[in-house]
UniProtKB/TrEMBL annotation:
Keyword Hydrolase: yes
Primary localization class, coarse: cytoplasm
Residues of the full protein shown: 1 to 304 of 521
Organism the protein comes from: Glutamicibacter bergerei
Domain comment as written in the entry: Composed of three domains: the N-terminal N domain, which is responsible for interactions with the ribosome, the central G domain, which binds GTP, and the C-terminal M domain, which binds the RNA and the signal sequence of the RNC.
Domain SRP54-type proteins GTP-binding residue range list: 277-290
Catalytically driven reaction(s): GTP + H2O = GDP + phosphate + H(+)
Protein name (record): Signal recognition particle protein
Superkingdom of this protein's organism: Bacteria
Keywords assigned: Cytoplasm, GTP-binding, Hydrolase, Nucleotide-binding, Ribonucleoprotein, RNA-binding, Signal recognition particle
Keyword Repeat appears in the UniProt entry: no
Binding site for GTP: 107-114, 198-202, 256-259
């Protein structure tokens, strides 16, 4: 991911190297190149516009620096703006003062929520936490079973209405809000310090699905609501993210499928448009394919 964007930006900045002073024409040309590179990487148009305007304004106002040549200064500006868009400092999970910490997952069907649930559970367990997974995706017939498999692989228990016997589980009439509440009660009773609540998604955003997610959110008052988005989604990322922002007011973003050949635009667009930080990245189908997202490292990777 970001390979092509990275190559394009590197080539652009190469042209600035060795220049003693940047003219307005240099800056215009560079801004144009950055704009094209971002658009080709599938970054949403309004995000590109705001980003380039900001870089240009700062580049035009550059003071002569003793330590950096103008080309390096522009790279530094682009780097800082990228870090800013991606959420600034690495954002850690907000843990509840009174456990359990409740983490709700939201996103479209197929985004990678159930997979992420297992990954996050495994990661938190390795950090010494005692997570409980709660299966509230009652929409997709196999979701409860899939979460149970992931829970088993992560060595983390799963709360579902009929734990361990998912075939008996009536997905048609089950009430995900009650399951979420009961799951948290179970976590309290069994002294789990973190609860991860998997919820249902649809292939596209629809009112019923969003209402269900909003109802779960209202019932369990989570410490974090993580919006999981497939990095391959491209230009659709913005509308999907805005719908979830309005529906469940998520607190952080998880990018999934970063191992694919996504051009990276979704990452930059979603974080920028919603103002919410990217917190984790999913990079494959195995539970180990999981990373804490560091905006500064990602920006450096893009500008490498
Ligand atoms: P959900 O509907 O949001 O719960 O999505 P799932 O967790 O079921 O994921 C949908 C599909 O994408 C499954 O086949 C997963 O194995 C796959 N998947 C999830 N995360 C990743 C990832 O980071 N990389 C790749 N390559 N596949 C993923």
């Amino acid at each position: 991911m970001f390979n092509s964007l990275s190559d394009r930006l590197t080539a652009t900045f190469k042209n600035l190297r060795g220049k003693g002073r940047l003219t307005e024409a240099d800056i215009d040309g560079t801004a144009r190149e950055i704009r094209r590179a971002l658009l080709d990487a599938d970054v949403a148009v309004p995000v590109v516009r705001a980003f380039v305007a900001q870089v240009k304004e700062r580049a035009l106002g550059l003071e002569v620096s003793e330590s950096l040549n103008p080309g390096q200064q522009v790279v530094k500006i682009v780097n800082e703006e990228l870090v800013g868009i991606l959420g600034g400092e690495t954002r850690r999970l907000n843990l509840a003062k009174n456990p359990p910490t409740v983490i709700m997952l939201a996103g479209l069907q197929g985004a990678g929520k159930t997979t992420l649930a297992g990954k996050l559970a495994k990661h938190l367990k390795a950090e010494g936490h005692t997570p409980l997974l709660v299966a509230c995706d009652l929409q997709r017939p196999n979701a409860v079973k899939q979460l149970q498999i992931n829970g088993e692989r992560a060595g983390v228990p799963v709360y579902a209405p009929h734990p361990g016997v998912s075939s008996e589980f009536d997905t048609a009439t089950g009430d995900p809000v009650s399951v979420a509440r009961d799951g948290i009660a179970e976590a309290k009773a069994k002294l789990h310090d973190i609860v991860i609540v998997d919820t249902a998604g649809r292939l596209g955003v629809d009112t019923e699905m969003m209402n269900q997610a909003a109802n779960i959110r209202a019932a369990i008052n989570p410490d974090e609501v993580l919006f999981v988005i497939d990095a391959m989604i491209g230009q659709d990322a913005v509308n999907t993210a805005l719908a979830f922002q309005e529906g469940v007011n998520f607190t952080g973003v998880v990018l999934s499928k970063l191992d694919g050949d996504a051009r990276g635009g979704a990452a930059l667009s979603v974080a920028s448009i919603t103002g919410k930080p990217v917190m984790f990245a999913s990079t494959g189908e195995n539970l180990e394919d999981f990373e804490i997202f560091h905006p500064d490292r990602m920006a450096s990777r893009i500008l490498d």
